[in-house]
Amino acid sequence: MADKVAGSKRGLNAGVQAVAAVVLVGGVAGGIWGLSRVLPNANGTDDPARCSGRLGTPPPPKHVSGEPKRVSGEQLCQALNRSDLPTLLGTPDEHALTADGNDSVITLDGGTKIASPEANVTLKTYSVKLSASEDRLSVAQGLDLLPKAEPRQILGHPAVLYSDRTIALTFGSGKASSGPGGIARSLLVAKDAKGGGGSFEIAVWRQDDVVPDDAALFRVAELVLPTIPGWKSG
Predict the structure, then answer these.
(1) Whole-number mean pLDDT of the chain?
(2) Where do the domains of the chain lie?
(3) CB of 76 closer than 8 Å to CB of 131
(4) Does pTM top 0.85 for this prediction?
């Protein structure tokens, strides 16, 4: 459920480091594209980053009459990249360095396709990912599938809190190397209070090896989730 990229790894020698990133284990194979998000804004300003789409990302699936309207990566980015995000994360003096949304599709065995939009916002200290899933699995099933998962409630919705391990990637002098990274903390939350199919997931991780603050994760979840199209209150 993770495909995440963050910022620079602490403790690397600046003289030999070209680019550093932290990637969740599940995202290494397809995560190299995310290095563009690690770098500061390319517009030469220090303004907070605005949402942008990933180059080459396929358009969101067309809405079919009678089906629930699907949220897009752009909508997720707009919900996540809010002006108070740094404050919610406990880093009020920072701002978004990169922000983007994209729309992808996961093809299951048998050919079933599931929309999998996501958004990523990177700050100096934290990175945050917001994603949506249209699968029919209940959040409760995540307790059996996710490592060391813990049941939670977010705004009356069933949720699962779990950790994932990152890998630190370093690119410099024409070579690439990897090593153990830090921990990402994730909340998988049902779209409705009944806990049926469909979910949103928010993950936070740091650019250093410090474990993310769960209180920050919950603050982000409680304010961001109700603003996403498809969230069902009550």
Answers:
(1) 77
(2) 19-227
(3) yes
(4) no
